[in-house]
Design a protein that fits this description.
By secondary structure, the chain is an alpha+beta fold. 33% of the residues lie in helices and 15% in strands. The strands form seven sheets. The protein has a five-stranded mixed sheet, with helices on one face. The chain has a five-stranded mixed beta barrel with strand order 8-9-10-12-11. Strands 14-13-23-22-21 form a five-stranded antiparallel sheet, with helices on both faces. The chain is elongated, with a radius of gyration of 36 Å.
């Protein structure tokens, strides 16, 4: 009997050995067969995850993440220890001890699969999950399982445990398009990893086993049960103490969907950057980890956002309250959870947050603000809400009632004001006039409500905002700021117009003979028409096209004088930059550089720079008396505004003379000092210049203004062209937006005006005739002239024209 048992044992052992050898042989054959399709060590180390495109300001503040997968790559050391412990507790508590496989778990899963006849269970370790998510497919076939085995072995041999865990925490899927733990923290809680509570960490650690089942937004109860399991494992493994465990168990599950975190709100610029990247590197570039550094200044962008939104809300309030956006049944003693559910269908629109009115007193109302809680709306937040047709409200119940759903603006301190989404739209573009770098750009009230970028895509009539380009042409053609033209009615026929045209000034009044300077700051339409007719339409178009306007877009008739072309705010800002920078044409740009996923610069902007100093050649003579002239040539950038020796191809093209630019700036300063832009005097600065613009029936309203270091154009109007209303004009709609922006943009910036260049002279003139004044004229005023375009004549007893001046402006025949 003993021999029989011994023989059976021997046969059994031999059978096991043969099976083992056969299994090893089969495994080796499988490896040889599958090896060509497995990732190499080099491939595994250099694998590129789908990382979204990231867009930054010029100083590195995040503007946007764009891509199909939300992923925020983090290093192992950037992942808090508590986060690492939670995932180890939830997924693989022997991770740092095993060699890549949990054999007990594998045996259990094999038994269950054998009994059920299905491949429904697994016991994957963190290493296996990392291998599967990073290098393999997610199907449950034996071929994939074998590939996972081989890749897991290779990973355990070639990577440290820390590297594997770090990789796993960057690739694991959490649902909601979130890949990696950092993206999950942002998606579910709107926080970076180091701000998560223990309960939130445990909730996230419980998701990967079944992302749809344990999603804390869709299934909070199941997510809470799963969290309890993870917290129990963390406590049992000694990762947390009992007090921490109890505190975390008591935390409510409050996850909700959050948009990607950003530091600067500039979605229109982000979309422009995305389209630019696609055009350069193809559609796949959006998920290849590129970083786009824009020219945007974060502080100025924030100021621009606020300015446009406040300006549009102020305009909208002037035109009446349109009532609540909905109504909800409150029930008795509604709880915050119930009120949040009632507001779930209403989305926030940037600074406007939906709220439901809970109760109404005589001069106030109590509201519940979505995801924020209760707030009080005082009379100052209700009194504005007068219907477009009807009396002003006298009590709060004239405006709202319990159950009304309204938008509010909150101060974060429990106080709110009733608001509504403006029907009008606006845009703002701010540029560095020396380089064309876009410092701030806003394309509308809210990008997510309407992605149309009015700053670059809306081609609208600039109205009187176009006049400075015509007046610059006039200065070039012999006119002066003192030239007198007639502001009087005129009937025009021909000149490319199908019917007779009777243009008027916006005021409906006429001033008679008017100096050019005065005509500009008072925005006299009839003077501009006579000026264009005197210069000639074709010569004017040739000149004005220098500023970047395409000739084909310029009307070839006298309506051009009133700005009837189609132009975008970006084009207007670029045109005004020429006046601000002393006469150079710049090209707006918004991308400073692009880096690939390795941090290599694959694109670097090289804008043409407006540099008056660079026009003067630097020689050794400039350094006589300052030591070795040859050595000091390297210091020549001090003579070029600190920019260094720019090569010719980096210098912007001069398109108007420096005296012309200086004179036009001076005339537009009068727009602020005594003209249609007087409202801007509230900024308390003497170095700002600009021009308002208003088209027929106030369908488009503008303000284009600048200092030597910053130019900004603002447009306000409706997408579907219609009047902004009676008494609305650029000075009332667009200028306040520009002021809101410039007040912040110029904060701490010293006043500066370009010095008067050579080629200009200041003389005394008679204000009514524009002639040189006699010494006895007590009303004489000072005016500046180009030395080759001096006043036409003088008063009796006057000084007469200074040598070199023209006795009559070119083309002046027939002006009167």
């Amino acid at each position: 009997m003993k021999r029989k048992y011994i023989r059976a044992i021997a046969y059994g052992a031999a059978g096991v050995m043969l099976l083992t050898l056969f299994g090893a042989y089969a495994l080796a054959c499988s490896f040889v067969y599958m090896a060509p399709s497995l990732p190499s060590v080099e491939t595994m180390r250099n694998v590129e995850m789908q990382v979204p495109l990231r867009v930054f300001t010029s100083s590195g503040e995040l503007i946007a993440q764009i891509g199909e997968q939300r992923r925020i790559p983090v290093t192992y050391d950037q992942i808090p220890q508590r986060v690492r412990q939670a995932f180890i507790a939830a997924e693989d508590d022997n991770f740092f001890e095993h060699s890549g496989f949990d054999y007990v778990g594998i045996a259990r899963a094999a038994f269950v699969n054998l009994i059920s006849g299905e491949k429904s269970q697994g016991a994957s370790t963190i290493t296996q999950q990392a291998a599967r998510n990073m290098f393999l497919t997610l199907d449950k076939t034996w071929r994939r399982k074998l590939a996972e085995l081989f890749v897991t072995v290779r990973m355990e041999r070639e990577f440290s445990k820390e590297e594997i865990l770090g990789l796993y925490l960057n690739v694991i899927f959490f649902g909601q398009r979130a890949y990696g733990v950092a993206a999950a923290a942002e998606t579910f809680y709107g926080k970076p990893l180091d701000e998560l509570t223990v309960g939130e960490v445990a909730t996230l650690a419980g998701i990967p086993q079944a992302p749809s089942r344990y999603n804390p937004i869709a299934n909070p109860t199941l997510a809470q049960n799963r969290r309890a399991y993870v917290l129990g494992r963390m406590y049992k493994l000694g990762f947390i103490d009992e007090a921490t465990y109890q505190q975390a168990m008591a935390e409510p599950v409050v996850a909700r969907a959050h948009a990607p975190l950003y530091e600067v709100d500039a979605p229109y610029i982000a979309e422009m950057a995305r389209l630019d990247l696609r055009s350069r590197f193809g559609p796949a570039a959006e998920s290849q980890g590129y970083k786009v550094y824009t020219t945007v200044d974060g502080r100025l962008q924030t100021a621009a956002n606020r300015a446009v939104r406040i300006g549009l809300i102020e305009y909208d309030r002037r035109h009446g309250w349109r009532g609540p956006i909905g109504h909800a049944k409150l029930g008795e003693h509604p709880k915050p959870e119930h009120l949040n559910d009632l507001l779930d269908e209403y989305a926030s629109v940037n600074m406007l947050v939906p709220a439901v009115v809970v109760s109404v007193a005589e001069k106030s109302a109590k509201v519940f603000v979505k995801h924020q809680g209760f707030a009080q709306v005082g009379w100052e937040g209700l009194a504005w809400a007068r219907p477009a047709k009807g009396p002003a409200p006298k009590v709060a119940s004239d405006v709202v009632a319990p159950g009304d759903v309204v938008y509010v603006v909150t101060d974060g301190q429990g106080t709110a004001q009733v608001a509504q989404i403006p029907e009008a739209q606006g845009a703002l573009v701010a540029l560095d006039p020396k380089s064309g770098a876009v410092a701030a750009l806003v394309g509308g009230f809210d990008y997510y409500m309407n992605k149309f970028n009015r700053a670059t895509q809306a081609r609208r009539q600039p109205g009187s905002g176009f006049k400075p380009f015509l007046y610059s042409a006039a200065l070039e053609n012999g006119f002066t700021p003192a030239s007198v033209l007639l502001d009087a009615p005129v009937v025009l026929e021909g000149d490319g117009m199908e019917t007779s045209w009777r243009p008027e000034n916006s005021s409906g009044q006429f001033s008679g003979p008017t100096r050019l300077r005065e005509a500009l700051y008072r925005s006299r339409n009839l003077v501009s028409i006579r000026l264009l007719r005197a210069i000639g339409i074709e010569p004017s178009i040739d000149y004005i096209s220098r500023f970047g306007f395409e000739k084909s877009t310029l009307p070839h008739n006298l309506t051009l004088a009133l700005g009837t072309l189609q132009a975008t705010p970006m084009q207007m800002a670029a045109g005004y930059a020429t006046f601000a920078n002393g006469g150079f044409r710049i090209t707006p740009y918004y991308i400073e550089r692009i880096e690939n996923s390795l941090g290599e610069v694959v694109y670097q902007a090289e804008p043409r720079i407006a540099c008056s100093e660079c026009e003067r050649p630097v020689s050794l003579d400039d350094f006589i008396g300052f030591g070795n002239g040859e050595d000091l040539l390297s210091e020549a950038d001090s003579l070029r505004g600190g920019r260094g020796a720019l090569p010719p191809e980096r210098l912007a093209e001069r398109i108007i003379s420096e005296p012309n630019a200086w004179l036009m700036t001076d005339m537009m300063m009068d727009v602020i000092r005594r003209g249609t832009g007087r409202r801007a005097l509230a900024l308390g600065r003497s170095d700002i210049a600009g021009k308002t613009g208003t088209t027929n029936e106030a369908k488009d309203t503008w303000f284009n203004g600048f200092t030597p270091n910053l130019v900004a154009s603002v447009w306000v109007g409706f997408d579907q062209e219609r009047s902004l209303g009676e008494a609305e004009e650029g000075a009332r709609t667009a200028l306040p937006v520009w002021m809101h922006f410039m007040r912040e943009a110029l904060k701490g910036v010293p006043e500066y005006r370009r010095p008067m260049p050579q080629g200009l002279v200041t003389l005394r003139i008679a204000p009514d005739t524009g002639m040189l004044a006699s010494g006895e004229n007590p009303d004489a005023i000072l005016e500046t002239f180009m030395t080759d375009h001096l006043p036409a004549g003088s008063e009796p007893g006057g000084y007469g024209p200074v040598g070199g001046g023209s006795s009559e402006p070119a083309g002046a025949e027939g002006i009167f």
